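dude i think i finally got it to work??
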Amino acid sequence: MSSQQTSGAGRLEHKVALVTGAASGLGAAIAEAYVAEGATVIVADVAVAAGQAVADRLGQSAHYIELDISDEQRWESAVDWIMEKFGRLDVLVNNAAILRLGPLLGFSLNEFRELVDVNQTGTFLGMRTAARVMVPAGRGSIINVASVDALYGTPGTGGYGATKRAVRGLTKVAAGEWGPLGVRCNGIFPGGMDTPMAAPASNNVLMRAKSADEIIGGWPISRLARPAEVAPLAVYLGSDESSYCTGAEFVIDGGATAGPAYLDRTPV
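look at this
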């Protein structure tokens, strides 16, 4: 990670952070940024080989654990292990998610339930389990990765967008309930990112009507985000610099939600 992407080690010094979905994409970028800023990072993912590889690459400050976020017992075991080994949990980044796209009329119940189990229930379980140790400690930061699809109704994102709207709501409720107890909860709302999760969308039914280039070309910054461009926001929200931020929605989408392009974006 370049010096331009982080301000140097120390912003997360002495903090212990759990990052889900950290075997690749945004989660791996956040784990890397956290280690660079002095945190001890638990790299959590169901992908054992890839997750362990990330932890090995990041060095002694990173530790891999296998975690299915839709499993309540796995969450409890993970947090118990963290408390036993490190004695604290300061930051939880609920990043793990799955993406399924398609029109509502063709969306199966099983597909919808799978999205709910992982994206919605998994986030809820992580928040609740982490808060059970953060609240007694009187400190903590929970960062939920939502999506700009939680902010508007894009055709084809009915299932995925519904779960991310739920994450948005959970973030607000948790901020209200746990803020007085010292635990902050904020949301990151990324737009399109160049990650393994997003790659299959290029072959999806949505893209048969409109090419990916046409969609991205309508954004003010007409490209996908790199995970390393989003990770610094998670550093800020995990650090004490954001001590007055809770219940907030941080959109980082290249201007995609700024509005449609009625005019040609080329310079006058």
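The beta strands are 16-20, 40-45, 62-66, 91-94, 140-145, 183-190, 249-252.
im so relieved honestly
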